[in-house]
């Protein structure tokens, strides 16, 4: 299923449990007490805790934990469509499907399993999926937890169809924050973005950092490999690294929209923020036999971390 690639008991590093609907979940642990939980419903990371046991991902108290409805929170896999810019339902169907554990996946990079506990998941289209989106594919997802608590997701999508196909993609990542009014994002300043609240109008970011005073739904184009989310009250910084994902989506529904969502509390917008590594503006096209890889790495550090360090880190990412 997955293992810990050091002198660390494989059985202790990963465990299969079931939720109250009988759906399998994989619990990953590292030697220092950090953990991650992945549901086979949607291939969705539903928990990521640091060594102190603090939950780093947001999940709504009103989230619906019953297939085929996707759960509001964690890290959702949005494929083969992000948002509603296409013929499929919002964010595609991958997040609504039951994935399987991939017992014998093709090898990844040589260092992708070193010092990590991990699980490999696999999704293939059903007959119903092919009626909605007539393209055959294999979607392999590896979720890994490192010794230092970093969380990494690697998606590999292969075209096993006879014709090319195109798709958009995002890791829809719900971060837990103390107070959205005390949060800022660094690394996206001066970039062009599509304002999804204004019919995808193309604008340019003017601020030194992104802060929040109202609803926001933006797609930042050609964004850097590393951005930071600084939570002043918790003195915590999330470092978000990505590869193969040219865009960054930033979303918070704020008060008015929160009240329209059945699976989201009226005031929960205050304690969450979505920052997604994505490929949205220009869909990815795969010829028959071709494979695409998109990688997301999440780190949570004390807020003494500064953006100059991000730039240094991104050179080795």
From TrEMBL:
Gene Ontology CC terms, in alphabetical order: cytoplasm
CDD domains, per the entry: D-hex-6-P-epi_like
Keyword Transport part of the UniProt annotation: no
Signal peptide: none
Molecular function, one GO term: glucose-6-phosphate 1-epimerase activity
Keyword list, A-Z: Isomerase
One BP term from GO: carbohydrate metabolic process
InterPro entries per UniProt: Aldose_1/G6P_1-epimerase, G6P_1-epimerase
UniProt entry tagged with the keyword Isomerase: yes
EC number(s) given by UniProt: 5.1.3.15
Annotated PANTHER family: APOSPORY-ASSOCIATED PROTEIN C-RELATED, GLUCOSE-6-PHOSPHATE 1-EPIMERASE
Family per record: Belongs to the glucose-6-phosphate 1-epimerase family.
Protein name per Swiss-Prot or TrEMBL: glucose-6-phosphate 1-epimerase
């Amino acid at each position: 299923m997955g293992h810990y690639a050091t002198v660390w008991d494989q059985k202790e590093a990963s465990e299969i449990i079931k939720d109250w609907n009988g759906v399998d979940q994989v619990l990953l642990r590292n030697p220092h007490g950090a953990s991650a939980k992945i549901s086979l419903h949607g291939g969705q990371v539903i928990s990521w805790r640091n060594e102190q046991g603090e939950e780093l991902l947001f999940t709504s108290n009103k989230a619906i934990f019953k297939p085929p409805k996707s759960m509001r929170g964690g890290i959702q896999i949005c494929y083969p469509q992000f948002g509603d810019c296409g013929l499929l339902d919002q964010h595609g169907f991958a997040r609504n499907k039951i994935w399987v554990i991939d017992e014998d996946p093709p090898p990844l990079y040589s260092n992708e399993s070193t010092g990590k506990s991990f699980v490999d998941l696999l999704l293939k289209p059903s007959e119903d999926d092919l009626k909605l989106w007539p393209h055959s594919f294999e979607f392999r997802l590896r979720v890994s937890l490192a010794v230092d608590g970093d969380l990494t997701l690697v998606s590999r999508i292969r075209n096993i169809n006879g014709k090319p196909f195109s798709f958009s993609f995002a890791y829809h990542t719900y971060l837990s924050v103390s107070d959205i009014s005390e949060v800022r994002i660094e690394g996206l300043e001066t970039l062009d973005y599509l304002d999804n609240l204004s019919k995808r109008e193309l604008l340019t970011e003017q601020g030194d950092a992104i802060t929040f005073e109202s609803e926001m739904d933006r797609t930042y184009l050609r964004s850097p490999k590393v951005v930071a989310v600084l939570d002043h009250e918790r003195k915590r910084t999330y470092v978000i690294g990505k590869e193969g994902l040219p865009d960054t989506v930033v979303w918070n529904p704020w008060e008015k929209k929160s009240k329209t969502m059945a699976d989201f509390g009226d005031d929960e917008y205050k304690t969450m923020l979505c920052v997604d590594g994505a490929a949205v503006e220009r869909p990815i096209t795969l010829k028959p036999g071709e494979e695409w890889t998109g990688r997301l790495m999440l780190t949570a550090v004390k807020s003494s971390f500064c953006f100059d360090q991000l730039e240094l880190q991104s050179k080795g990412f």
